[in-house]
Each structure stands twice: as structure tokens, then as C-alpha cells.
Batch of 4 targets.
Target 1
Amino acid sequence: MKPQALLLATALLVSPSLSRSAAIRPWVSGALAGSTYAMGDVNDDISTINSALNGSGLKMEKMSSGVGFGFSAGLDMGSGWSIGLGYDRLNASSDVGDYSGSLEYDMPGSLLRGFGRYTFASPGKVKGFLEGSAGRVTAGGSVTLSATGGGALSRDVEGSGIAFEASAGGEIWAAPQLAFTGSAGFRKAEAKNVTSDGTPVFTASGEDYTIDYSGLFARLGVKIAFVP
């Protein structure tokens, strides 16, 4: 066989393999998540409230954790690398009350993030990955004071800020296009420029108020991959 013919035959054999390995593969996933929160300024408020309630037998729990959910969509680019977009709902609330009325802090956050992921090569069905994310967190909640027989007074609370995440996780492929996923990591996410019904909010010391969703998190979910 001539050298040119040998090179052509080799190229024809190798190129399908390369195209398959480099094919972009889209996927979507959904997950439930548990998170811890810093919530320094919010919990300072709650400490002040509990001081006022001292001796009443009532106590408002601090916001230290919450259970939420999230969705993401990505593209497997080949060689273990993936990119995508994700949305996470960060639920956070606390309340206190009795027969005479109640006070509720409802401070859910919405996190929209872009991420990059590297999945380690493995011949089996279990694959580990590392992931980094950057995005924006938006707080959109309320503080509501209710009195029995007297109605309720509610103020909308809003704020936003930059967010970052770093995590490690794994996938267990139950089928060629279906995997169970889990990950755990740390999130830095502070909603700043907080307003109450449009009015800027400050701490007791006069500093800018922050709704801080920073903390540890863990996700468990399902991933569906599509044939390219």
C-alpha cells in the first residue's frame, strides 16, 4: 500500500472516533439542596427581638439553614469539561408568635450562576467531578407583623450581590442517559444594597445591611443527558 493510501485509511478510521469523543452533549438536571447561612445582620435583628421577648416564653429561631431546590443545564464539551447555567432557590425564614399576633422574617434568595465543571475519566458508572460557579444572588423577601384582630403590616425586602461557589461531587450512571448526582461545597453569596419598601436599610451601627447566604451546601439530584 502506498504511504498516501495508508495515511488516508488511518484518517478515515481515526476521525469517527475523534468526532464522537469531541461531540458536544447537552444535559439538564434538577436537585434538592440543603444549605447553611451566615445571616449575620438578620440574626442580629433576631437577637434584638429575642431580647425584647425575654420573659414571655417566646423565642425566634435564628436563620442558620434552609432547604431549597435548583435546576441546571449544561454542555459536555469533551475531554471531561462542561459549562452551563444554574438556578438555585435559597429558602430562609423564621417566625415567632402566640395568640396575640406574630412576626415573620421571610428572606428567600434566588441564585443565578454560570459554572464550569471537570469530570474525571472513569471506566465505570461512577464519575467524580469538581465545579466552580460565579453569578448573582437576589434577595426578595418580606418582614410581616400581624396582630390578632388587627390585620398585618408587611414590608418588602430586596437586595442583590455577587456570588461564588466551589464544590466536589459525583455521578452514578444508571443508564446511558440517566444519572443520580450529588455534590457538596461552599458558597459565598451576600445580597447588599438592601431596601425595605424602597428605603435603604442599615445596621444598628450605621453600616450597610447585608442578607448573607454564605455557607456550606449539599445537593442531591438527577441528571438527564441528551444524545448529540
Note: The helical segments are 3-21, 40-52.
Target 2
Amino acid sequence: MPAVAGVDAGATGPNGRPAVPRLLCEVGSQVVAALAGVESLQTPPADAFPYFYRRDPTDKRFRVRRGDTGAVVETVSGFAPMRAAGFVPVPMPLVPEHVLGPDAAVAGAWDLIVAEDTPGAGETDAAVEFDRTDR
């Protein structure tokens, strides 16, 4: 199970279940990658996925590579040509602790914004309510 440094992918708890929850990345109903927890998503090993891509700093083109060997299978100028070649880039999921840092009080760092449609109101009369809940 691919994992980042410091994550023991084989550790089990007292009940015999994995100590680190598995993170499954699926396309449709097919699992294409399994990682050892959300921490491994931050910088997953290249071989965790069937393909990965990076922009070359010298010519600014994307190199799509096989995850298991690193061999270049496609070189493209951008995301549209990458999609046309059959490689759909996956947006990186947002993990608040990865963005805000390990010392952030994530539970209290969120604002809830609720936009309500008022019956009979025009588009310019929409009500927006801001609610800050400090924990």
C-alpha cells in the first residue's frame, strides 16, 4: 500500500483492522489507486497511480508517465491536448490540514455562507446570511 514517509501502511489496531484508513481513488466503480490514508494523498508515490504527469520546467510541456516505470507515454502542451490523448487530469482533493498546516485549528477555521432564494424576489434581492460559529 503506497504511503508517505512516517505513515505505517501495515500497522493494525487492537481489533486487527488497519490503523491508517485506506483511501480508495475510483473511476466509476473501478479502483485505480489505494493509498495509506489521506496523508499519503499530499505527495503520493508515483507508482500509486497508473499514470502521472508533470510540467517540464524547460519547455513547459506536460510529460505523462507510467506510474510503475516512469516511462514517458505522451508529451502534450496543455490540459486540452492531454484530454484529447485520453488522459484526464484529476483535480487534487482539498484536504484542509494540507492547505492550512498541521497546527491550524481546522474545526474553528470555517465560515458557513447560506444563500437563500426569497420567493418573488428578483435576482438583485437575493438574501445572503453569514454565520460564524466559533468552536
Note: The chain has a mean pLDDT of 75.
Target 3
Amino acid sequence: MIGQENALRSFGIVRAMNEYDSIKLFFETNDENGEFLTCSENAVSRFFPPIDKDLIYCTKNAFSELVVDINIGLGFLFQVGFPNKRTLEWLKQQNFDVKFLGDLDPVDLLIFRILQTITDNVTFLNPYESIAANAFVQEQTVEEKQAFKHFESQFQEIENAISPSNYKLVKSGKKIELEAVADSIQWFLQSL
């Protein structure tokens, strides 16, 4: 429903939106197929506190079962969909070095971008450079391609953070789901 947001803008209803509000509105108005989920304000996240100050923010709750046995001092926050304000406010108050782990697709990259707007200490974890991950490249959905086109300037800003080759892959209409690297995720996290 990109047209709905553009219509709101043309009627002056949406004025000078900041990046957070613009991305949030996009998620809220484009969730017909369940691709752009928003996390309700009372949604419960799975949280494992860090020993030091490294926190992995992961968009896949199912991965919590894979990492629960890893004793490497990292904290984990698992939350599906666009993060709610409570989570973002909490993250803002912490002094964590946030490491983002999500799909290599427009949906999760927009969530990564939102995290970048609230803290300077966020990096993109990149388990996607391997040959094995590239075997799982898929075509983006129509909605994901629309999101990339709509927020292309935001994606250009994160090109170096996600790597130029990953940016090129996403820009070409392709994606890699985090599940593609599930078999090696424990090894990858232990190597951090």
C-alpha cells in the first residue's frame, strides 16, 4: 500500500515524517501478506542478558533455541517484526554494542536501519558471505521489492554496513533468509 502513504502525504496528513515514522507507517500499511509485521506494544521478547555489553538483536524467535546453549557472554534479544517503542526506548537507555542478526532482505534491513537511528553502537552481523549461504538465494516478494524501491536512499546509507556484495544482492531483487545459515549459526556466533 505504498500508494496509501503517498496519498496521505499529498493531503498533508503526513508532514515531514522522520525516518522512524516513515518506516513504521510503511510496515503498518503493507502487512496484508504478513511480510511487514509490527510488534505490538505488549509483545514479549525473549531476552538473555549479556555478561559484558554485546547484545545480539535477532528477528527470528526460533533462533533462541539454537543459541541458548552457547555460553559466550553475548546477550540476546529476540523480537519479530518492527520493534515496538518500549523495546527501542529500552535499547536507547542501555550501553550495549548491538549486533543485528536477521534476514538479508528489505524487511529486516529496514529494522536494522531503525536500530541505527536510535544508537550509534549497532553493527550488522554477516553470516551471508559464504558459498553455502549463496546456495539459498531466493527472489524477493513483490512487497519486498516495493519496499526497497520506496526506501532506496535508506538502503544506500547502510550499504557499507551490510557489505557492498550484500547490498548488490538485495538491490537486484534477491534475498537470503537467516534459516539458510542455521546449521552454521552457532559456529558463527562463537567466532565473534
Note: The CA atoms of residues 38 and 82 lie 4 Å apart.
Target 4
Amino acid sequence: MRKIVFIWFFFAGYSILNGQNFKILYEHKARQGILDGNRKTFLVTGYSTSHVPRERPWPSILQEMLNNHVGNDTTYYVFKHTVGGTPIAKWTDICGTGKHITDAINYYVNPGGKIDAGIPKATIMLAQQSLQWAFGDCNNRFIGIEEPDDEIHIQQGAQAIICYISQFLESGIESAYMATHIYKTGNYPLNLLGEQYALTAALDSLDNFYPGPELFEITESLFPEGFASDKVHPGAPVANAMALYWYLVIAGEDSKREVMEPVAESAGIDIPDAPVNIPIK
């Protein structure tokens, strides 16, 4: 049976946005959009890439997009639990205590103490994370996956992702998505593009775990002007691009151009057209 992946093309003379090539991550578990009109709550987990810029990080922009998509602010809810300086290794017992996972679950999933009465508990997780420190040395942030045949580090990274995601899936989250990291080289000594190989391996190992957007190459096109002054964290253009592509993943074929237009303009990127189904044998 052939699997279906989504690739967003640019029409009217636009070029293919190579970073959003769903064959890289989606050939195993492509999924239709999930904005079906039923009330639901999304939980964003991660570190500083999801709460910078503080005045309007990408989860806040995504909330605005979902409100515009459905025409109200009482159908889809986006909450975030983010902790600066804490990639996956520090959320788990690889280099941490697991407290951040426990807190996120308690606050937003089960029992959901930070969610007001009448709002559904979070059942969908959007992970914007990283594998820094996940490769056997909690004092060395700069070990990473350099090549697609780096099997030792790929498997270490995949196991770290599985450890992280599975704890949420076992505690009330019904489906989880994870994106690739935003562009991070420039003045930063570690290229995080290789994390995609560990994510691909992890996706093969867990049920109800799906790929988020491929953001590394997309945001590379916005470097450095679209980033914060440190050239590491998102500036407003990068935050808008992150929200736009997360929206495309969860909206799928139901994505609306009028919802995307102002966000794409703020990001300084072209608007992806409707998704085209590409069969993969």
C-alpha cells in the first residue's frame, strides 16, 4: 500500500520551499489535518525557542491563527510549558530530574490545574525541542549528529526523544508532534540539522507520534535578520514562520490562505499554496 505525504508547493512562479520537504520525515506517518471543529487543547513544550520574542512567541501567533481559522476563540486552545535552557536531556533523567515533564502534565494534562474550568485538558502536544546534551555527556552541549550515517548518535538521540514523548503519551496526551530545530549555526558552534535523523528514527518507534514541520532550512532563509540580536533565538519574522508551518501541519488540507497571509507577510516569506498529495511507494 502506498503512503501519502504532503509537500507544499509554491505556484504562480514561486519555487519549492526545500526545507518543507515532507519526504524527509513524513514518509512513515503522514497525517491529515486535525482541525475538525471539535474543541481541543494543544500543549507546546520546549525551551527558549518557544518563548522568544517574549511579547509574541510562536505559540501566541498560532493561537491567533487558530482563532481566525475557526472564527472564534472558544474552539482551539494553545498553552505552553517552556523552560529556558532545557532541551530534552534536561526535561528527562538523562541530565535532569523529570520535573519539567511532571509539571507540564500536572498543569495542562492530568489533572490540568492551570486550565480553567470549561476548557478541555490538553490532548495534543506540539514539541519544539532539541537534543543538546543528550549524547552521554551532560557537561558538553556541543556533541551532536554530524552525518546521516552517525548511527551511534542517531540512536542515542532517538532514545532521548522516545523517553521524552512517551511520558506524555502515557499520561493523557493522545497524539504528539515534534518539529526539527530552527536554524542554529552562525555564531553558534553546533549545527543542529542532524537532529532530523534521530527524529526520523524515533517516529518509527512510537504510535501516536507524528512529525511537526521541518523548520531548520525554512528559518535558515531568514538568518540573520529574522532572528534576535543574539542570532540564536527567534526574532519576530522567525516566530511568525514557525507558527505558520505549525499551522500547516495541524490544519493540513483545511489550511486557509486568509489565515496564512498576514503571518507570512510578517515573516517575510511567500505563502505556501494548498497541499498536494504525493504518493510514496
Note: The radius of gyration is 18 Å.
